[in-house]
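Quick start: what a row looks like.
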Amino acid sequence: MKSSSFFLLSLLCLTPLHAEEAIDPERIANTIILNETGVKNLRLETIEVEERVFNESVFAIGRVEDVPGHGYAISSRIPGRALKVNTRIGDRVERGETLIEVESRQPGNPPPVIPLKALRDGVVTEAKVIEGKPVSPDNTLLTIADRTVMWVTAEIPEQRAAKIKEGTKAEVSFPALEGEPVIATLLRFGVEADATAGSIHGIFELPNPSGRLSPGMRTELNIIISTREDVMAVPESSIQGDPSSRVVYVKDFELENAFVKAPVVLGSSSGGWVEVLEGLFPGDEVVTRGSYALGFAGSGSGISLKEALDAAHGHEHNEDGSEMTPEQKAAKEKPHDDDHGHEGGSAPKWLIYYASGITLAFLITLQQLWDKRRKETSSHA
């Protein structure tokens, strides 16, 4: 008896260790569960939340320009004709490369040929020479721009310009090109403001070693006016909801292809990032690409919360996600009776009860008759 009581007490103590915590009803209501096909169709992408350097910046639009004076012209020092032209507009040339061969008008057999060479590396931006045509010293034959360094002229809003000084850095992106933003430095402000646009010209210098930048190319600048470290921020593309109730979608920590809508409190936004003051923790995986479409997904995905939890935990749950009790499991495993009988030709249970009742009534009646007959026999004796 003592050992049995001890065993029962042990079971009572161990049971809570194996019980699952109840699932927060709010989490259930805000959980969107997809199947693998749904995730692929929405093309979801996530980013892990972490503390980062946060730059407060001023946004501006600009255009790429050649640096004034960073070019040169090629002309012939003697009259003659262009015997051979080795380059054309758009070609990149290197210092010392022969660009044009000019045949002199001086007598000779053959006449002397003078090579015209590139003075520095650059790009041919203008060509006014045709092979076989005459040339003279007063003609510019080629114009070459040195584009290893370029300028970006940005339109800075006047009300924000006071915080921007010479030497300020900016992250410059080019819609026409792929890749990470390039860091440029503010050289100076323009000599005139644009009264119509209400802006001031800011001239930024940036390297162009690959030569991919061309004059007139559109740019987008985030001009950095302050920097803070250890700020938790997420991409703007992850923020959804109306201005009074912003939310993000966080990848569930245990359920496959499940995402939880999480309310957040936001701070400053800059350069495509938004500061998160409340609602997220470092290590959370936030949906970036596809977050807008995810808000309309979830219904008809082919998988329920119960099925997702069953797969994650390895045992059955109720439809609301709660753990199934032993009584519920027993009730589910108990065979379901019906009015049509069991498999294998067994009689319906109602028929068994009816036959048992008839049999019992018959036995009672038989016992009463037997007792009555014994009494009659005794009285005659």
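That is the whole record. Residues 1-19, 337-344 have pLDDT under 50 and may be disordered. The chain has seven helices and 21 strands.
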